[in-house]
Write a structure and sequence with these properties.
By secondary structure, the chain is of the alpha/beta class. Helices cover 37% and strands 13% of the residues. The chain has 2 domains: 228 residues, Rossmann fold, CATH 3.40.50.720; 27 residues, no CATH class.
């Protein structure tokens, strides 16, 4: 029997890229999938999954709209008898320099926050009662390596303040959600990823995109494309996470590094990584003697020379 046989998963933003990879992999693992996107292409993705024998429900709507989210969650529960997994994948990116005209800044704020934060909040709260009835579940928020220490250039660029803020907001939803839902056996985690081969990233290299000077009509050149992570590998990581059972963590996924869960993090560093990636806690314990510290603290200064 497939690992997710009898389970139902919702994947937002599933018309292409990561969302499609997540939906297809969850279906391959035996889950019935409810997929949605503002792009009509999501219907064809659903048809492809159904042709392989998977149970599927497809919806075309704006994930930032309350009534649409309410209806889709209700339809999913009615169609498949419950909800076990939610993948909050839908997101938008816009270039938003702080020197933008006022009206554009307000429009961009609404567009980015409505999809990247408000929709995550709505979908998570809507599915939680269904998961409680089922005795547990998993919510996975798709974040970015922007919220973790740098391992590449281009992170937190000056024109990404709103996108960056929206992904930092996911830290709060992930951390608090994990704590609040733990008594119900519902796990809440985030995948914080670097550059992955998606249409949203490719578009930056096409004419009119932020990185058009590095690309062309077809997007990034082969040498840049080769540095992107494969959505199928991230989908495998998602399945590994569902099997693992941890909660309240940002799982860092960096291009050029192994795509793996790694050890479970200590309670005080679940949502972040040390700048030196040692996995040790990074906390402000106050003045010595640090009698409440959970472990020796002489190594806690980031960037401290090893011979100091």
């Amino acid at each position: 029997m497939a690992y997710l046989s009898g389970k139902t998963a919702i994947v937002t933003g599933a018309a292409q890229g990561l969302g499609r990879a997540f939906a297809e992999r969850l279906a391959d693992e035996g889950a019935a999938v409810a997929i949605c996107d503002i792009r009509p292409d999501v219907v064809a993705v659903g048809e492809s999954i159904a042709a392989r024998g998977g149970g599927v429900l497809s919806g075309v709507f704006n994930i930032a709209r309350r009534a649409a989210c309410e209806g889709f969650v209700a339809d999913t529960a009615a169609r498949f008898g419950g909800i076990d997994i939610l993948i909050n994948n839908a997101a938008v990116w816009r270039s938003t320099p702080v020197t933008d005209p006022w009206e554009k800044a307000l429009e961009d704020f609404d567009a980015v926050i409505d999809v990247n934060v408000r929709a995550v909040m709505m979908m998570s709260r809507l599915v939680a009662p269904h998961m409680i009835v089922r005795g547990g579940g998993d919510i996975v928020n798709i974040s970015t390596d922007y919220v973790l220490p740098k391992r590449r250039e281009g992170v937190n660029a000056p024109d990404t303040d709103l996108y960056n803020a929206s992904k930092w907001a996911l830290n709060g939803l992930t951390d608090a959600g994990a704590q609040a839902l733990a008594p119900h056996n519902i796990r809440v985690n985030a995948l914080a990823m670097g550059p992955t081969d998606t249409e949203m990233l490719r578009a930056l290299f096409k004419p009119g995109g932020k990185l058009a000077h590095l690309g062309g009509p077809d997007g990034p050149p082969a040498e840049i494309l080769a540095t992107f992570m494969d959505p199928a590998d991230i989908a495998q990581l998602l399945v590994d996470l569902l099997k693992d059972g941890r909660t309240g963590e940002n799982i860092g996924v960096w291009a050029g590094y192994p795509i793996e869960l790694g050890p479970r993090k200590r309670w005080d560093v679940r949502m972040r990584e040390r700048a030196d990636f040692t996995g040790q806690p990074l906390r402000d314990f106050g003045p010595p003697p640090w009698t409440d510290a959970p472990e020796p603290v002489e190594h806690l200064a980031v960037g401290k020379p090893t011979n100091a």
